[in-house]
Amino acid sequence: MTSSSLLGTPNPTAIGFFLAFVSLTLGITWWAARHTRTTEDFFAAGRRITGRQNGFALAGDYMSAASFLGIAGLVSTSGFDGLIYSTGWLVGWPVVLFLIAEPLRNLGRYTFTDVVTFRLRQRPVRIAAAIGALAVVSLYLIAQMVGAGNLIKLMFGLSYETAIIIVGAVMLAYVLFGGMIATTWVQIVKAALLLGGAALLAVLVLAKFGFNPLRLFSAAADRYGAGVLAPGKLISSPWEAVSLGLALMFGTAGLPHILMRFYTVPDARAARLSVFWATGLIGCFYLLTFVLGFGAMVLVGHDAIVAVDKGGNMAAPLLAEVLGGKALLGFIAAVAFATILAVVAGLTLSGAAALSHDLWVSVVRKGTAPHDEQLKVARVASVILGVLAVTLGLMFKGQNVAFMVGLAFALAASGNFPALLLSIYWQRFTTAGAVAAIVTGTVTAAVLIFLSPTVQIDILHHEHAWFPLKNPALVSMPLAFCVAIVVSILAPEPEASAGYAAKERRMILGEA
Amino acid sequence: MIVVYFGFVLLVAFDKPLLGTLIAPGLSFGVLLGALVIVVAWILTWYYVRWANSHLDRRVSEIRAEGS
Distance between CA atoms of A202 and B29, rounded to whole angstroms? Predict the structure, then answer.
């Protein structure tokens, strides 16, 4: 650790900002709890969120600490390569808008599984899709919790275990008492804070370069060579780049916690508008992280960033310290903490929906559970997910989990996305086809990740990896589509095809 | 959108020197393209929302009127 940095020592400003954020959000939760009476309130905020509010909440749900600290860090240490991630994470949104958002809103109630099962047999598809959703949610939770523990340890000087338990407890308070209403507002506040914080930092950086980004880039190139403005060593083979691109682009359209947000708006028109806002906000944010990354590269310096954290994750906080001293560092640290809380709350809620709505109410009780039982089960499921999140966080302490977000995107793109897309747009899609698609996509992606260089060489220290690519989407996603199509054609299901017209009508017209 | 992004990714994959070309001091072709990908995403979503709000919603209400 560099002697000049205050990172890792308890910082009163950071703790003050953080306590302010927690009090504000718990106040919101208290207010939301009084408005949470039905399952629809709990999982879908009573469908009263407006398009613009949902756009902010989607941005808050999506922009994780990994993208704020991770991308700024990646850009600050390797330059251009970080841009591949930031654009990849954004371009999934138009895909969601054109293909998924409106049908999803019109066809489902609480989870994306509602859409997949719309005209198929309930039980087999529910079970498969809920397990697919839970796999993605768990992996994403591990990545967020372990990241949270490490970050908070670095920034506040708290122990790893304390950090994990604080995150778990506060997040569970939001979800358990305030449900989707509280989660939505936490995400909105967090999105505003994160964008505000990033914009403030970017303005301070650009002020040092005469408000001309080109002078900033030139300064970076002068210091570290023109290579920082060109693709570098991160993406080693062409196929690797394409595979990563596939996972980032279509993974967004298969993330359960993102898809779930579309049920919080009243109609398809609002769903459409919310993607417009989300794309705008997330795009701005990624442009800002690019300035932050190059700013940290020039103003903090590559060596100082890597000295604090090998992965470069502390680039943005270090930059804040250089630009605005202890106060700004404290503010940015609190923003990063808030970011983690909002994402983890969204994940927990979507996992709870898969457990209670898909598995308990639809499979075990066959859709006949009374309302108060549904709400009770939803709350029990949230507690289970919360405890699971803390346990996973503690279990994976010290593990390198950077690849897990990539894995979650690959699983979402290969397991959830093909089944969802085919169920919406292909008349001859069958129950067996849907189950086959989810199982093939999820299992192939998981096995290929296990055989990839990331696990075999970096973690298990074997000499060779059986599968050459770090990201499996290039193989697993097309394979899931092929299996789904072949199985559906070989064993047609007339009832499912007959339901297509009704689905089409509801998809376009909504419930009315 | 798919075409734009994969065009960008394929350039990253197969033609690294081109993206490294400086077209102005401090501005490489790759950085400019990356920023443009984000701008194109904005334009596409904006255009779609405009089209859907005027066009699609009118058709939907027509169909609703016929149905009832």
Answer: 22
Indicate yes or no: CB of B31 within 8 angstroms of CB of A80.
Answer: yes
Q: A90 in contact with B at a CB cutoff of 8 Å?
A: yes
* Domains of chain A by residue range: 12-38+49-509
Residues 6+ apart with CB under 8 A from A47: A40, A263, A264, A265, A266
The Cβ of residue B18 has, within 10 Å, a number of other Cβ atoms equal to 15
How far apart CA A25 and CA A32 sit, in angstroms, is: 10
The secondary structure of chain B, three-state, reads CHHHHHHHHHHHHHCHHHHHCEEECCEEHHHHHHHHHHHHHHHHHHHHHHHHHHHHHHHHHHHHHHHC
* Per-residue DSSP letter, A253: G
Q: What is the interface pTM, i.e. ipTM, of the complex?
A: 0.77
How does pLDDT run across B19-50, given as a tens digit for each residue? 656 655 556 666 777 788 888 888 888 888 88
User: In CATH, which superfamily holds the domain spanning A12-38+49-509?
Assistant: Sodium/glucose cotransporter (1.20.1730.10)
User: What's the average pLDDT block by block, 10 residues per block, for chain A (512 residues)?
Assistant: 58 82 90 86 87 91 81 80 78 84 85 85 88 89 84 79 90 90 91 92 88 80 72 66 82 89 88 91 89 87 79 82 85 85 90 87 79 85 91 81 78 91 89 91 89 77 79 90 92 81 77 56
Report d(CA A319, CA A205) in Å as an integer.
Answer: 9
A69 contacts A336 by C-beta, under 8 angstroms? yes
Question: From the CA of B55, how many Å to the nearest CA of chain A?
Answer: 12
Residue from the list B5, B19, B63 with its beta carbon closest to the beta carbon of A230: B19
> What ranges do the domains of chain B cover?
2-67
